[in-house]
Structure of CPNE7 protein:
Amino acid sequence: RATATMGEAPELSPQAPLAVLSKVELRVSCRHLLDRDTLNKSDPCVLLLMQSQGQWMEVDRSEVIKSNLNPVFAKIFTVDYYFEEVQKLRFEVYDSHGHAGVGTHDDDDFLGGMECTVGQIVAQKRVTKPLFLKYGKFAGKSTITVISEEISGNNGYVELAFRAKKLDDKDLFSKSDPFLEIYRIDDDRSEQLVYRTEVVKNNLSPIWEPFKVSLNSLCSCEEKRKLRCVVWDYDSRGKHDFIGEFFTTFEEMQKAMGENKVQWDCMNPKYKIKKRNYKNSGVVVLLDLKIHRVYSFLDYIMGGCQIHFTVAIDFTASNGDPRNSCSLHYINPYQPNEYLKALVAVGEICQDYDSDKKFSALGFGARIPPKYEVSHDFAINFNPDNDECEGIQGVVESYQSCLPKIQLYGPTNVAPIISKVARVAADEERTKEASQYFILLILTDGVVTDMADTREAIVRASYLPMSIIIVGVGNADFTDMQILDGDDGVLRSPRGEPVLRDIVQFVPFRDFKNASPTALAKCVLAEVPKQVVEYYSYKAFPPRCPQPDTPDSNLGSPQ
């Protein structure tokens, strides 16, 4: 389950037993690298690999820094961190000769590697280790340093657009080739590189491409934290010429929102001392700043979003006569059947997120009174105007009382119930608020009969605030049900339309027969927080009542 991802992604709730997922940012620098080039210094690049099932897989790679034996890489590696797992990482440094030459494991280009675990980096926050060549040989005095930061819960990202005007000309026969670096100054006065722009060739008034950085990276989510910005004239041999610098804060940068712009004098301290009429070495302008908040599952829950739980139970004849002890619906006074075990395990978690503790309980595949016609979406309390039961215990009681009153029949059609819940979710969507999200738990003993209609219904539901959990009860062959779970590919409707989001989780109950009830709940509910955040992010719905930031952060909630 060890994974690594690039870019931003929503966090999952720390509420047990839902999967706990942290994201960690890793910054890399090296010292005293081997010089593999005859004419110039090495052009280093770092590859990050993670071990998965005994194999090293490349996760990401840094930029190439020209002619530098002591590089500080601007690339920030982002990895998912699981406390309960040993996640092995390997950093490999190469002398790059273009992208085709990176990672080819040519001995001449390999500058050294280092192995560690995510846990070691997280625990120590800063890890410095020697680089090794093949066969355990030291790569001279080469070292690699990895610094970790956990992305905080109130993290978002900021989009910045800079330009400069009338920069000093550092070149004799042409104009300067400027680039901008932004450093965050930490509490111990050390500087962390946040971002390095591209080089704009032969231009004293460059306009750099807009870029995005996380608020955590930029200022540790503290708007008054000091930032140092440095403008350099690029040199292909790595000896960049200093043009000037200025200091600012994220608080000051925010004045550039909207139509406003903020500018700073780019100062060279040596010139300021030596030159009597020195004004500046140019001006740097922040043209635009946009703040984007990345909300977590917990943000939505604490903002008042309710999780509405609906259970749908299979009452087809293949379950067996409920009066027979071999039936999957047999009520044993000493031990709950598999339907009840699955219902209680999942429902007890969901009820914590529903303030009224009322759950819709539906049945399908049975002949029901009074006319004993087959129904595929009936209320098991036989109240068509109100299918809700009081708490999980109310659902259990309704289930037990309805069994003697119905005739198990068929077929196993679930599309009608998915569509029924989807209609309620569609009404909720029209409120344009993150107020209610729907989870449909389907308990069935076999493969659905109406597969085409079910696929169509799921595709429609993927656009709504809704997730579907299917638990296969009994010993049937559920192979064909795996198609509904998008883990192995994108689910499509019969017409070829793909789901917008992966909203289905299918699990055979027999896989958890000898495990604790919490194991089943953890498995089937693990993806729900991510699905909730994906839906509201897609719709751009913020939490209804965003919570104030934690006391250790001074950064106000971005809009």
